[in-house]
Amino acid sequence: MPREITAFSNTLVKRVRSLRDKKHRRAEGLFLAEGLRILTEAREAGRIPHYLFFTAEGARHPLAVTLIDAVEGAGGEAIETSHDILSKLSGKDNAQSVVGVFPEFTTPLAELDRDASPIWLVAERLRDPGNLGTILRTGDAVGAGGLILIDDCVDPFSVEAVRASMGALFTVPIARVRWEEFVPWLRSGPAQLVGLSLQTDTDYRGASYAAPTFLLTGNEAQGLPEAYEAECDVLVKLPMLGKADSLNAAVATAVMAYEVLAQLRG
User: Fold this and answer.
1) Which of 11, 73, 134, 265 is the most buried (most CB within 10 A)?
2) What residue ranges do the domains of the chain occupy?
């Protein structure tokens, strides 16, 4: 039976609100996700929140009823609260009707199965949570085997990244590794490493892609380091016909992913 919390001073409310901060997420190993759509994606992927906060109005939705049952069935806690407290938890004035608290999860590099998909996404020192979330959505859309985050990327469990992923955080495996770990793993089996770069004359539609293709996108401002480009089997660029010298990292990744998908599907 759900309990009710109405006080902003409640210890659990304070604890959950603190998860908006990276330091507290790391200490707790927990993160926030909000919205019926995203939490339903999580449930369907087998991820059930430890805590589920919802309003009385939100609890009337059939998807919310299913979520509440799933949380309680898994030994978690379902908590009825107010819109104001949900806003406090999410940091948004127009908060969603449900907020879930999940344990963080990543997949060790050694557990990734490169045969699971012909397309893999790799991001190096990505800084913008919106870009990371959008790349996850792209990964879900093209059926990528996973997203491998290289070096010091933005936290995929930040509130902004989770929102931008629109549930793909729960459907696309994520690995976080250093470049020095990634390269030996990559070269231990079949793989074509394709880097997005301005330092090449090869048009992205003029290259040939071979499965499994690992599509490498660099830092938004600096691109890929020279040594990382040297490790790539193919470097490609997107044609820029206007004054801009490059596309947004997430947009470029999506364009490339669909070109790779089109080629591999024949």
Assistant:
1) 134
2) 3-103, 109-264
